[in-house]
Amino acid sequence: MHFSKRLGAEFIGTFWLVLGGCGSAVLAAAFPQVGIGLHGVALAFGLTVLTMAYAIGHVSGCHLNPAVTVGLTVGGRFPAQEVVPYVVAQVLGATAAAFVLYLIATGKAGASIGGFAANGYGELSPGKYGLGAALITEVVMTAMFLFVIMGATDARAPAGFAPIAIGLCLTLIHLISIPVTNTSVNPARSTSQALFAGSEYLGQLWLFWLAPIVGGAIGALVYRAVCSELKPAVAPVEDLRPAA
Question: Which of 62, 76, 139, 173 is the most exposed place for a label (fewest CB within 10 A)?
Fold first, then answer.
């Protein structure tokens, strides 16, 4: 499949992840009559990945996340020369979704976007967790996310179930880490929200690029060391492999 179509799929997929996940936090979680809370937001993020994995997994691999793209490259599942275009498409898709969400959130009298579901530590952390706790959380959670992705898309894994495992893993990650950092594990998602949330969030954005990418690389390396067979790294199963 033409490379531009794969990039378009990553743009749309990341757009959906941010609109669905961050949208649930900005709009539904803050609405008293709905009040989906932490559990609903966590589920929303998982559902965005699950639905898009089935929709575009066969087109682009459905990374939707620079840390996933880098991790899969470190894990031998994705070509290094395609990393930068994928990351650019993901950041642009996330930012477009944040813009749409901003237009919706400010579409009533007296509206305030508040933190706009952005990520932070210290005073910007939902639970006021410090830099050290935020760093550990983001590295470990992203490492486990990549470990699950590598395993679920291994050629030896049950075919067709990878999106479910990956979506539920992201849900669990949010249930654990929303109180600490508001859960990033995705630099594109963090960038898109910080652009609208204010300079204080932009000042902490470095952490939400560094920690997820380091964590993703660690998770991929651990999977290769622990779970791979004594042969070259296998490609992802067909339902999550970019089309040729």
Answer: 76
DSSP secondary structure, 98-125, as one string: HHHHHHHHTSSTT---TTTT---SGGGS
Q: What residues have CB less than 8 Å from 177, skipping those under 6 apart?
A: 137, 138, 141, 183, 185
Q: Which amino acid is at 65?
A: N
Find all residues with CB under 8 Å of 221, minimum gap 6, and list them: 74, 75
Residues written for the chain: 244
Cβ density class 166-175: b for 16+ within 10 Å, e for less: bbbbbbbbbb
Weakly modelled stretches of the chain, pLDDT under 50: 230-239, 241, 243-244
For tokens 């894994």, the residue is 157
Cα–Cα distance for residue pair 34/180, rounded to 1 Å = 23
| Distance, CA of 61 to CA of 15 (rounded, Å) | 15
Asked whether the beta carbons of 143 and 222 are under 8 A apart, the reply is: yes
Residue type, 180: V
Q: 183: which 2 tokens?
A: 């859960």
How far does CA 197 lie from the centroid of its chain? 18
